[in-house]
Design goal:
Structural class: alpha+beta
CATH architecture of the largest domain: 2-Layer Sandwich
Number of helices: 11
Shape: elongated
Number of strands: 9
CATH superfamily of the largest domain: Bira Bifunctional Protein, Domain 2
Number of domains: 2
CATH topology of the largest domain: BirA Bifunctional Protein, domain 2
Distance between the termini: 93 Å
Strand content: 15-25%
Radius of gyration: 40 Å
Amino acid sequence: MMMDHIARLREKMNTIVIEDKATLECFRQDFIGKKGSIANLFEAFKQLPIAAKKAIGPALNGLKSEAEKKFKSAASALEAVAPPAIQQPGDVTLPAFGADIGSLHPLTIVQNKIISIFQRMGFNLAEGSEIVGDWHNFGALNFPENHPARDLQDTFFLQLNPAQLLRTHTTSVQISTCTAQRPPIRSIAVGRVFRNEAISARSHCFFHQMDGMYIHTDITFSDLKGTIYHFVEAMFGEATKLRFRASYFPFTEPSAEVDIHCRLCQGKGCTVCKHSGWVEILGAGMIDPNVLTNCHIDPEQYSGFAFGMGIERIAMLLYQIDDLRLFSENHLAFLRQFKGCFGFSDAAVFAK
């Protein structure tokens, strides 16, 4: 009876045509696998008497050898067949599709440009925490105890530790720099600042600032003006008109604000420049001797200047953007206009 089973299995095996790897795997599982038909016959063969084993054994071993030989032969034949040629889709002579690349945020582009300009003038980049103490943010900078900036309606104080607050300007980084280093110091600090202001097209509760300072012997207001003139020419172009206006800041004396011709209306007057034709870009002045003393720097030996600007204000002028909120609201229609921009020279101009 087993001899008949062997004969039927051999006939079935010989009729199978192996055309691809799928049928090859099916053949292996059906005939030479551990759970295949031939393996099952060998299990039944173990139960036969010795006399029957002598008669059936050679036939069963022959069937196994034939199955293994056919499997190896088919496997070798399939490996020898060359893979089909890859079909080229469409017309290969057409231009390639452009890569779908991202971009830097416009504020990052402008920030990198500002840093680059001042680093070429010898300024080092300093970093500091967004959470600072009252002394770094106000006290060391000559703010009086009753100054409005210290009030809750202007500054975000921490609820768990009212002695700490979210910095209102990056000038706090300069205090840390001055207390850690000795003159000469030429430093800039860039980062996010926070103020308790209503959100509108012209103001926000958080924005970005850049502060700079230079402390050395015999530093004068002329050195400050030369630095600002160079920055404005490098950022906005040599033909840009600018002016200095007398102003007041607690940590500088004398103090000034710097305006340039409004780039949105070309000086003709618009809502951004309040119809004056001029837009303030930064505040500056000579560092107050009290600030130097608070940082353990002798004001009799050293002098210095400081300046600060809003990154958003510079970006609005460069890209002709009339709404500050666009920088933080993640509108794709706005951000996609800077697609592919990885540097200042590549930046697109935002059209209203």
